[in-house]
Fold these 2 entries.
Entry 1:
Amino acid sequence: NAGVMQNPRHLVRRRGQEARLRCSPMKGHSHVYWYRQLPEEGLKFMVYLQKENIIDESGMPKERFSAEFPKEGPSILRIQQVVRGDSAAYFCASSPGGSGEQYFGPGTRLTVT
Amino acid sequence: AQTVTQSQPEMSVQEAETVTLSCTYDTSESNYYLFWYKQPPSRQMILVIRQEAYKQQNATENRFSVNFQKAAKSFSLKISDSQLGDTAMYFCAFMFRTSNTGKLIFGQGTTLQVKP
């Protein structure tokens, strides 16, 4: 059973460009979570999605950030007009239900130059 | 708001010895989960152990065990017979059990160095 997949693993963007991060949950998991880890810090919750629905986006910045989990295909975290402060590791996790263990992907390291 | 505090930014232990990592949390809820995650240099987040708050028995997974003190809101991780591969950052995390949010609230992490 393949684990949570994230791509790309590393992404470099210039200020003002768009970043698209992809996450494929584990087989059989319909709940996806996105977290951000700034250097030398713990992970911070961003958003929780089920297929075609955003359940909790309380951790998402109000502007430039959006997330989706379509009926078909991976979950996408989109950051528009990136700034240097967006440089971080972005982790996706999935679970079979809305509580309990979450299984993490390897993360996408975003660098904004 | 719920908070998770790990008061030890860094710790070290000799190989084969035992080490305990501390974690405290703050919540008014009674039904929740607590977790320890490990993040080695590869940065992959790996679940180490899980505790359900309604269970009085402390969780154990091989060399890893917890000391869960619900009244004190304390959740420490004990690593026995430490191995070089245990070198990593360790995060304590909290999750409501009954909420529909499912989000994990993480502590700041403790960097553990296992020395040969």
Entry 2:
Amino acid sequence: QKEVEQNSGPLSVPEGAIASLNCTYSDRGSQSFFWYRQYSGKSPELIMFIYSNGDKEDGRFTAQLNKASQYVSLLIRDSQPSDSATYLCAVRGTGNQFYFGTGTSLTVIP
Amino acid sequence: NAGVMQNPRHLVRRRGQEARLRCSPMKGHSHVYWYRQLPEEGLKFMVYLQKENIIDESGMPKERFSAEFPKEGPSILRIQQVVRGDSAAYFCASSPTVAIHISYNEQFFGPGTRLTVL
């Protein structure tokens, strides 16, 4: 079983719609959860992190965490073509190591 | 405050040669992580280091690959006798000491080194 699992997509949404990205993890002791965005040929850049159950909002982005279900999600409201990228979910495990999912490819259609 | 720096950005080697990839973490960061990314694939963890210590190298191939993070200078990922399958993007990330505050434990990535083995 992989440490972190994501739906690889591709996910396509029209401009202005809400994009929903999901992630599950296996280590129940994990404390911190991260979403990174990676444009083709570039390095990952941090969008958000969350470590408490519930929602955390930052601009058009909302991260949601449910530790009981071992589930993390990222919502992107008012999606823009510039949001088209691969989104990586990362989990910091109990051993201080980071585990990354394989990423979900998002395309926002103008 | 400069970000994570990696060099070279592009590296071409012939089969059998050695590749050395360098990573300078962000100022104040004492944790370094190396990842490999093949085209159209996710990030694969290779090794996690602190100054002068390898903390976790469970993702690193047992042969030909080694990593260090000396007291002075950058972290080095070394690949000996490269093969075509080593062609990939190698990313370094750094993070501050976890004990400071849980919210300060995110990783910041360098621009990567793209290794091509001919």
